[in-house]
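Justification of resources, computational component.

The compute hours requested in this renewal are based largely on the per-chain cost of generating structure records like the one below. Each record pairs the submitted sequence with a full C-alpha coordinate output. That output is archived, and it is also reused by downstream analysis tasks.
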Amino acid sequence: MTMDTDKLSHRIRKRFDHNQAKRVLREKYIAKMQFAYNGGIWCAGPELLNTLNACPDASAVLLDTNNNPIKIDVPELELAVQQRWQEQMNAWHAELETLKRER
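The structure output for this chain reads:
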Protein backbone atom coordinates (compact mmCIF):
# COMPACT_ATOMS: atom_id res chain seq x y z
CA MET A 1 0.00 0.00 0.00
CA THR A 2 2.79 2.44 0.87
CA MET A 3 4.52 1.62 -2.39
CA ASP A 4 1.42 2.53 -4.39
CA THR A 5 0.95 5.86 -2.60
CA ASP A 6 4.64 6.68 -3.07
CA LYS A 7 4.36 6.02 -6.81
CA LEU A 8 1.17 8.04 -7.02
CA SER A 9 2.73 10.89 -5.05
CA HIS A 10 5.78 10.86 -7.35
CA ARG A 11 3.58 10.95 -10.48
CA ILE A 12 1.52 13.84 -9.10
CA ARG A 13 4.64 15.81 -8.22
CA LYS A 14 6.14 15.15 -11.64
CA ARG A 15 2.91 16.26 -13.36
CA PHE A 16 2.77 19.43 -11.25
CA ASP A 17 6.41 20.22 -12.06
CA HIS A 18 5.71 19.74 -15.77
CA ASN A 19 2.73 22.11 -15.71
CA GLN A 20 4.71 24.70 -13.79
CA ALA A 21 7.60 24.39 -16.26
CA LYS A 22 5.14 24.99 -19.13
CA ARG A 23 3.83 28.14 -17.40
CA VAL A 24 7.36 29.44 -16.86
CA LEU A 25 8.21 28.72 -20.49
CA ARG A 26 5.11 30.61 -21.65
CA GLU A 27 5.97 33.64 -19.52
CA LYS A 28 9.54 33.58 -20.82
CA TYR A 29 8.49 33.68 -24.46
CA ILE A 30 5.65 36.16 -24.00
CA ALA A 31 8.24 38.53 -22.52
CA LYS A 32 10.55 37.92 -25.49
CA MET A 33 7.76 38.98 -27.88
CA GLN A 34 8.17 42.60 -26.76
CA PHE A 35 10.55 44.84 -28.69
CA ALA A 36 11.26 48.51 -29.33
CA TYR A 37 10.53 50.18 -32.64
CA ASN A 38 10.51 53.89 -33.51
CA GLY A 39 10.30 55.04 -29.90
CA GLY A 40 7.53 52.64 -28.90
CA ILE A 41 7.28 49.24 -27.24
CA TRP A 42 5.45 46.63 -29.30
CA CYS A 43 4.34 43.07 -28.60
CA ALA A 44 4.70 40.75 -31.59
CA GLY A 45 1.62 38.65 -32.12
CA PRO A 46 -1.42 37.98 -34.26
CA GLU A 47 -3.28 41.05 -32.99
CA LEU A 48 -0.55 43.46 -34.11
CA LEU A 49 -0.09 41.63 -37.41
CA ASN A 50 -3.83 41.87 -38.12
CA THR A 51 -3.80 45.57 -37.29
CA LEU A 52 -0.85 46.15 -39.61
CA ASN A 53 -2.51 44.15 -42.40
CA ALA A 54 -5.59 46.34 -42.09
CA CYS A 55 -3.62 49.57 -42.56
CA PRO A 56 -4.29 50.87 -46.08
CA ASP A 57 -1.30 53.23 -46.23
CA ALA A 58 2.45 52.70 -45.94
CA SER A 59 2.56 54.81 -42.80
CA ALA A 60 0.17 55.02 -39.88
CA VAL A 61 -0.11 56.12 -36.28
CA LEU A 62 -0.75 53.25 -33.88
CA LEU A 63 -0.85 52.89 -30.12
CA ASP A 64 2.06 50.92 -28.69
CA THR A 65 1.74 48.69 -25.61
CA ASN A 66 2.05 51.76 -23.37
CA ASN A 67 -0.83 53.45 -25.26
CA ASN A 68 1.43 56.05 -26.81
CA PRO A 69 0.61 57.09 -30.38
CA ILE A 70 3.63 56.24 -32.55
CA LYS A 71 4.03 57.00 -36.25
CA ILE A 72 5.22 53.85 -37.96
CA ASP A 73 6.24 52.57 -41.37
CA VAL A 74 3.71 49.75 -41.83
CA PRO A 75 5.76 47.35 -44.04
CA GLU A 76 8.86 47.82 -41.89
CA LEU A 77 7.05 47.16 -38.60
CA GLU A 78 5.12 44.27 -40.13
CA LEU A 79 8.38 42.59 -41.17
CA ALA A 80 9.87 43.14 -37.70
CA VAL A 81 6.76 41.69 -36.03
CA GLN A 82 6.67 38.65 -38.32
CA GLN A 83 10.34 37.92 -37.74
CA ARG A 84 10.13 38.34 -33.96
CA TRP A 85 6.93 36.28 -33.73
CA GLN A 86 8.20 33.39 -35.83
CA GLU A 87 11.64 33.37 -34.20
CA GLN A 88 10.21 33.21 -30.68
CA MET A 89 7.46 30.73 -31.55
CA ASN A 90 10.02 28.36 -33.10
CA ALA A 91 12.25 28.60 -30.02
CA TRP A 92 9.26 28.16 -27.69
CA HIS A 93 8.12 25.09 -29.64
CA ALA A 94 11.60 23.54 -29.53
CA GLU A 95 11.87 24.05 -25.76
CA LEU A 96 8.37 22.67 -25.21
CA GLU A 97 9.20 19.54 -27.23
CA THR A 98 12.34 19.05 -25.14
CA LEU A 99 10.27 19.45 -22.00
CA LYS A 100 7.76 16.86 -23.23
CA ARG A 101 10.52 14.34 -23.92
CA GLU A 102 11.93 14.82 -20.42
CA ARG A 103 8.57 14.11 -18.87
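The chain has one domain: 29-102. Residues 25 and 92 are 7 Å apart (CA to CA).
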